[in-house]
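Practice problem: predict the structure.
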Amino acid sequence: MKPLSFPVFYAAAVFALLCTGPSMAGAATVPRAKTAPVETTKIWPGVPPGESAPPVPEKISRDKEGRVTNITNVWQPTLEFHPAPAAGNTGAVVLVCPGGAYFGLAYAHEGALVAEYFNSIGVNAAVLKYRVPRRPPPAVFGEIALKDAQRALSFLRSRAADWKFDPNRVGIMGFSAGGHLAAITSVANKRAYPDADEADKLSCRPDFTVLIYPAYMTAQGLHSNGNGTPRKPAPRGVEEVLTPRTTPGPGTPPAICFHSGNDGYTSEGSLLYYRALRKLGIPAELHIYATGGHGWGFKKNTALSDSVRATLAAWLKHNGWLAPRAATVRTGSPRG
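Answer:
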């Protein structure tokens, strides 16, 4: 598939794309090759920072086939590593952060299905089970999850040789609250916790970022309705602005953002993040679909999800993330 020639899908373009979807969808429905077993491991060497003992037992919801759909009461974060098939392994890896309003984790369509998609295009995937629910004020919004995401990136890089991927091609991807987490992890200029072990000598910032309908990106949105429920865009005359923690700086990695124009969590967050990256001269791409709402994730056999999967694969290839590359050093990039 040829790279897209423009960064933003306007309503007419989206309509045309969805109506001519079979060629795009084909890239997203490649039969899954046999892979090595999935490996699940704790990311912290002991008790996670800021914890003492499990407050309540972890709660896992499953569908009628027994597949995990939602997880909450997470105290001990883990990585679920899904290796790409050896024959087509590109060496890239993506840390996947499911959404769930920082109360739970939508582990199926924003986790396991995402890993399956990445494996189908030769990309390794690591689904992060980060700590939820969110801590009440005065705790900083998303701060506990930020520790887990930063640790996961350093821990991932420490396992690069064992898991056979390139530590210089480690991306992060998040949906909804997980999109907010991916953004603040990409923007952060320092580690949010003291080094836990040797793994933390490796970088805790991703090499590229994928944001899917990120929530809580703007100051107006976070402060007026930061309780996990959708909200309308800012009232007329009130300008949306990114929060300090979601505002990109010189060391923020390249990104691609996807959003629906009618999402209850305003698409302004994705738009402002894209604009901020462009002003800094950092490569960025933005796709805003006319409709779609919120929470569609990587559900199978939907025109919107198929389009996103195909577009994301093209972006990864066009920007060189599916081929070996030299280490990248960025201004302000936090040490491992």
